[in-house]
């Protein structure tokens, strides 16, 4: 499978730093193709707003037009594997743009976590037991921390074929996983 596209150009990172654009990318990842009208229905935003933000995502190379379906003009992601931001201190604005995108992404994802926690009382026992909040602290070198991140991503790869509905086992649901690997400041 293709690797995630690495983005370190500040203007492309900033193009993602909008809550509706992040949501639209998520939706396109889930549905493969959507029209602006379908995006509006799924987000509660106006068709005009969705159209504008879809065009911005196209301008910066994240999505493209799919084959027309009659009068419908759907959009689709350029890549199914998603994107990874790369901080490049030699690219002016790269660090600041990545920090802003990380803040917005974490805020949006944490809202989903809280919504899931609020629904726990309505979930069947099997999904109660499958729901986890994990927190850990370890001592590692930068190289070990990077390797840990690679190992975690490798675990996710075995589920990627399931974006195709025919590959999903009965009873499966979209499961969200949010993890961070970051260091504390060095101790003096």
TrEMBL record:
SMART domains cross-referenced by the UniProt entry: HTH_ARSR
Domain of life: Bacteria
Xref: InterPro entries: ArsR-like_HTH (IPR011991), HTH_ArsR_DNA-bd_dom (IPR001845), WH-like_DNA-bd_sf (IPR036388), WH_DNA-bd_sf (IPR036390)
Sequence segments annotated as region (Disordered): 160-188
Domain HTH arsR-type positions: 11-100
Name of a matching Pfam family: HTH_20
Name of the protein in its database record: Helix-turn-helix domain-containing protein
Organism: Georgenia wutianyii
């Amino acid at each position: 499978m293709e690797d995630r596209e690495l983005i370190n150009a500040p203007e492309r990172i900033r193009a993602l730093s909008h809550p509706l654009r992040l949501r639209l990318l998520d939706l396109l990842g889930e549905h493969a193709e959507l029209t602006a009208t379908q995006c509006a229905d799924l987000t509660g935003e106006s068709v005009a707003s969705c159209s504008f933000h879809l065009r911005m995502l196209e301008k910066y190379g994240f999505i493209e037009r799919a084959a027309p379906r009659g009068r419908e003009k759907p959009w689709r992601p350029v890549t199914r594997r998603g994107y990874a931001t790369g901080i490049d201190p030699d690219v002016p604005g790269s660090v600041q743009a990545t920090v802003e995108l990380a803040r917005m992404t974490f805020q949006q994802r944490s809202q989903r976590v809280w919504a899931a926690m609020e629904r726990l009382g309505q979930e069947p026992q099997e999904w109660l037991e499958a729901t986890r909040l994990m927190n850990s602290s370890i001592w590692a070198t930068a190289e070990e921390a990077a390797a840990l991140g690679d190992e975690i991503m490798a675990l996710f790869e075995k589920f990627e074929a399931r974006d195709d509905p025919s590959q999903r086992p009965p009873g499966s649901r979209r499961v969200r996983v949010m993890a961070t690997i970051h260091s504390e400041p060095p101790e003096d």
